[in-house]
């Protein structure tokens, strides 16, 4: 681009470069696809050069000429932006939204995968009846096993059988033992509305709170750490007395 003489008209001085850029813009659609981006960057630099040139001549040129030249250069920039959007290939992104949603749903549905702090009540989830909460009809056992950061309640079990809901003095009323095994950061509520409880077997609990109603049997403890148990029973047998608080 030739140097602008302050004595010359700015508009006529930049006209050759402006017209050449216009011709390049008109032929941009015929440029091979693998070279379009380079050509766009080149034209962008040339348009920026015209903009800087107009700014430099502001002190020496009439404001009307500066305004006209600025609009002409801006029109080139707008046309380049339109062609860039049409011709420059956009990067392709592949999203596996359905797979991600399925994975997130599986993670949130599995309490054992929870990595948040177990001591906060807001982090506890309410367990649903599954393989870790089973009713053994052959031995009248209620089992809570392998849960983490979960609120467990005897009310989560299916509707009791007629033998369970019989009056306490009835010979038909069944007495069920409870097994609490391998629980971490859980609260366990064994206060039932209708089921009679016999013995409570507690094994490998960590940072758990267990509430037991008055029962006819015993509470047997083994391998529990940092947990608290409230309840009334005939006798408590424990293997590690120094690790328990009652």
Automatic annotation (TrEMBL):
Gene Ontology terms, MF aspect: tubulin binding
Family the UniProt entry places it in: Belongs to the TBCC family.
Keyword terms: Acetylation, Cytoplasm
Subcellular location field: Cytoplasm
Name of the protein described by the UniProt record: C-CAP/cofactor C-like domain-containing protein
C-CAP/cofactor C-like domain boundaries: 121-246
Skewed-composition ranges (Low complexity): 103-116
Organism: Entomortierella parvispora
One example of a Gene Ontology biological process annotation: tubulin complex assembly
Main location: cytoplasm
A cellular component annotation (GO) from this entry: cytoplasm
Region (Disordered): 103-133
Polar residues bias: start-end ranges: 117-132
């Amino acid at each position: 681009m030739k140097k602008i003489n302050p004595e010359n008209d700015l508009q006529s001085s930049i006209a050759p470069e402006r017209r050449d850029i216009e011709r390049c813009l008109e032929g941009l659609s015929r440029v091979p696809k693998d070279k379009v981006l380079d050509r766009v960057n080149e034209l962008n630099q040339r348009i920026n050069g015209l903009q800087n040139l107009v700014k430099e001549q502001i002190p020496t040129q009439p404001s009307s000429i500066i305004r006209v030249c600025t609009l002409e250069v801006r029109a080139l920039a707008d046309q380049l932006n339109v062609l860039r959007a049409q011709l420059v290939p956009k990067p392709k992104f592949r999203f596996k939204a359905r797979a991600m949603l399925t994975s997130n749903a599986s993670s949130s549905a599995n309490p054992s995968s929870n990595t948040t702090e177990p001591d906060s009540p807001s982090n506890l989830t309410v367990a649903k009846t599954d393989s870790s909460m089973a009713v053994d009809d052959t031995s009248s056992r209620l089992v809570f096993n392998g849960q983490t950061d979960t609120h467990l309640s005897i009310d989560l079990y299916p509707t009791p059988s007629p033998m369970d809901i019989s009056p306490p003095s009835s010979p038909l009323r069944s007495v069920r033992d409870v097994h609490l095994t391998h629980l971490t950061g859980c609260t366990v509520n064994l206060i039932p509305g209708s089921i009679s409880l016999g013995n409570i077997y507690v094994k490998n609990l960590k940072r758990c709170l267990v509430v037991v109603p008055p029962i006819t049997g015993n509470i047997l403890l083994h391998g529990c750490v940092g947990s608290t148990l409230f309840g009334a029973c005939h006798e408590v047998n424990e293997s590690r007395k120094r690790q328990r608080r009652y």
